Amino acid sequence: MAGTRIPPGVFVAALAVVAVAAPLAMPTPFYVDIMIRVALFSFIGVAWNLLGGYAKQLSLGHAAFFGLGAYTSTILEVNYGVSPWIGMLAGGVVAAAASLPIGAMCFRLRGPYFAISTIATAQVLMLLFLKFRGLAWGAEGTTIPNLGDAPLMMQFAAKAAYYYVALALLAVALVVTWLIERSWMGYYLVALGEDEDAAEAVGVNVPRIKRHVFAISAFLTGLAGTFYIQYIYFIDPNTAFSFNISVEAALVSIVGGIGTLWGPVLGTALLEVTSALLQSWLGAGLGGVQLTIYALILMAVILLRPTGLIGLLTDARDRLFGGGKRTKEVVFDG
Amino acid sequence: MADALVVRDLSKRFGGLLAVQSFSFSVAENETMALIGPNGAGKTTSFHLITGYHRPDPGSSVVAFGRELVGLKPHDICAFGLARTFQVARPFGHMTVLANVMTGAFLRGRKLEAARERAREAIAFVGLEARAHTPARDLTTIDQRRLEMARALATEPRLLMFDEVMAGLNPSEIDQAVALIGKLSGRGLTIIIIEHVMRAIMAVASRIVVLDHGQKIAEGEPKEVMSDPDVIRAYLGSGYAAKPAAGEAPC
């Protein structure tokens, strides 16, 4: 991608200041809640984008890692009193470890067959947690004991604190992506996403690099699972392994701009905010109107701008500042 | 001179079809060899078998620079010093020329700046400097072929395998490609080309191996191979076999 006229450092610093100060400007906790969701799903989207965007391995089963992260930290906390901060890391490790056998199975398939097989793995995990009650509370799930204001146990009285945790997670994922994008690994990921056989021909160990990026993506998604359960104080298999998580992770990246650093953040900002606001304005009374509008926005973005919102923004910038010729798609440069 | 590649009894059966049958040949170091034959003769399949894209049938042996390659993955074979291009160019379309070639260069070192430097050298070698920041999918056919050559070169191979890099090029582009292959050979590389353009083969190859129906039917110096009645029959049909002159080539 071409650099912006404004130095990227300045742009990022300004964005960080706005992101950190934003909760102070919010009139009610309702808006802070929206911001938490934006930060959280941006985070999941950025994690998904490493595998689904750069390497073009369209996973629709990231709920598997979200759920494993969530259950790991919850079991550790509820049964053993371990702080979710530690549990979160453990959850990430469990998710990354699970990505190895899941990858060994699913990466045998390409394209849509890969996507379908990842859906299946998340569903199988959900069923395991539903049916095997001895594993973790079965279908009833469990609530997280409320300790009041206990930062060491990842429980906060102020909603804004949750927002800052999610924001920190997002920052970590963005830095990881930025580092990968600027290293040999970024080139290898984009190359194998373009053409696996041609990538092998220039010495790219495609199976190994897929395994590695899948593990990184799963690790980050596992962290998100812990955070989400801590935020809503409740876990059950349908929540932790929800298919919606998998779909959302992919959608925000596709709408925002697949295989770009900021794409998933932009996509989440648009989708989550519109969906939350529509829901609060229209309520449930009008039966599905808000879902219809949400769907129309999705279709509009995907039809009009297949490169996502990032493509829209770079186009606008090029038109305003008379930059290089208009590119239809995001191109990876040296 | 030592052998760069020794292929013994290379065979591949796809169901009922014997695509390659007991194909044996060897290439000396710094030699340029052409592999020719009618469509469907098994040339590209042989490339796939040598470079690890297909697994040869038991009993086959492919030894490059003294090492057995059968059973290795394509990326291992590339790392060992055998680079190839594809019959239909397969650039990474959404990457620029520079990024494409850098992807190859990372094989010999993961540092970004060093890889960029080596990639620029390879790009300059094939004459694509002006296109360094062009997305690969916007390149013309010859430039895509050049890109594939640069990308293969960036992996610093000892043996290059070109699969019809001249197909679809016009005569002046063919001359450029011939010059490029000559330059590579001048650097000490061993080269195997699959080609139909006879003019180019005559210009670059010191030896020709002819495949038909998966079997080697002739091998030798370009001139003698092209006047071999079996070769003429394979290319043009038996009706032409009686005619002695075969200087101007079947395509």
List keywords for this structure.
A: 334 residues, mainly alpha, 15 helices, 1% strand, B: 251 residues, alpha/beta, Rossmann fold, disordered C terminus
What does this structure look like?
The complex is a heterodimer of chains A (334) and B (251). Chain A has 334 residues and is an all-alpha fold. Chain A has one domain. Helix content of chain A is 72%, strand content 1%. Chain A is built from 15 helices and two strands. Chain A has a two-stranded antiparallel ribbon with strand order 1-2. Chain A is globular. Chain B has a six-stranded mixed sheet, sandwiched between helices. A four-stranded antiparallel sheet of chain B has the order 2-1-4-5, with helices on one face. In chain B, strand 7, helix 6 and strand 8 form a beta-alpha-beta unit. Chain B folds into two domains: 163 residues, P-loop containing nucleotide triphosphate hydrolases (Rossmann fold); 62 residues, no CATH class. The two termini of chain B are 32 Å apart. In chain B, helix 3 crosses helix 4, helix 3 runs parallel beside helix 5 and helix 4 crosses helix 5. Chain B has 251 residues and is α/β, with parallel strands linked by helices. At the A-B interface, helix 8 and helix 9 of A face helix 2, helix 3, helix 4 and helix 5 of B.
